[in-house]
Amino acid sequence: MSCRMFVEIFEVGPRDGLQNEPRQIATEDKIALVDLLSTAGFRRIEVTSFVPAKWVPQMADAAQVMAGIARRAGTAYSVLTPNLRGYQAARDAGADEVAIFASASEGFSRANLNATIAESLERLAPVAQAARADGVALRGYVSVVTDCPFDGAVPPQAVAQVVAALRDMGCHEISLGDTIGQGRPETVDAMLSAVLDELPATALAGHFHDTAGRALQNVEASLARGLRVFDAAVGGLGGCPYAPGAKGNVATEALAAHLAALGYRTDLDMAVIARAADMARNLRSA
Ligand SMILES: CC(=O)SCCNC(=O)CCNC(=O)[C@H](O)C(C)(C)COP(=O)(O)OP(=O)(O)OC[C@H]1O[C@@H](n2cnc3c(N)ncnc32)[C@H](O)[C@@H]1OP(=O)(O)O
Ligand SMILES: CC(=O)CC(=O)O
User: Fold this and answer.
1) What is the CATH number of the domain that holds 256?
2) What distance in Å separates the CA atoms of residue 74 and residue 76, rounded to the nearest whole number?
3) I want to staple 12 with a disulfide (CB 3.0 to 4.6 A). Which of 16, 75, 137, 167 is the partner?
4) What pTM was estimated for this model as a whole?
């Protein structure tokens, strides 16, 4: 066992990576991608989302994907849930972890969730309550933590307020999303400075899209603040249907290599990751 410090890469490719693909990807291809990723050694994989098909058509087969995957001991299978109906479907599908998501800006909240921030938090409260009652692990996301495609620069304090609300609902971890990939190490650092007043780094994750090519720099800024969990998507897949211009998540293979160069271990099988990245890219271009 290496004595290098461990950093978890939370694989979001099957959900965040694929959700924006215009061509409907076959359910069996999604299952094959998750099954391959399961052999790479991830502690957690975000498989799909239980959202209305009219909002995100690519995720319409969430229940079938969850039913079809071969679960591996040691990997938890996580899904995104926007409301109680989505949570109930996720629970019925046997999700190990559910993620609720809110926005730090009103403009993105309206576009992505059809609600104000306050309304969206009100809608998420019963989801959190149900997850706690059922003993299902609850993750939180805050989107647009530095820049919003509608409202511009996002004040760090606005992010901290939503983080505090999700913490109070019982999220064991909150992932901070640079949804449109416009964050810079300085803006990420300022945002983290405010957020860390509410939650320790051990309960935070970084979620950086690579639109402007700064995702790895933003990961480094977050490592310096103590974060040790980062979301990534094999092949750099991704984008958000409700964030104009948003590109893919930082690529899992690039992040793992970068972390290794910085002296961290991820315990992932890089040969499998390379195959999964190829598979993901082929799904996109097929
Ligand atoms: C940054 C990111 O990448 S975040 C992930 C990407 N973005 C998303 O997934 C979008 C998430 N947003 C949403 O899911 C939606 O905005 C919601 C559900 C939160 C709110 O949308 P609204 O249209 O206001 O919800 P509303 O409750 O009116 O339901 C709309 C329809 O969806 C159905 N519906 C609601 N929730 C769900 C669900 N979880 N699963 C399936 N269908 C659902 C309703 O029955 C209704 O159906 P109808 O039109 O046939 O009557
Ligand atoms: C929910 C997410 O996918 C996070 C983000 O990019 O805002």
Assistant:
1) 3.20.20.70
2) 7
3) 16
4) 0.97
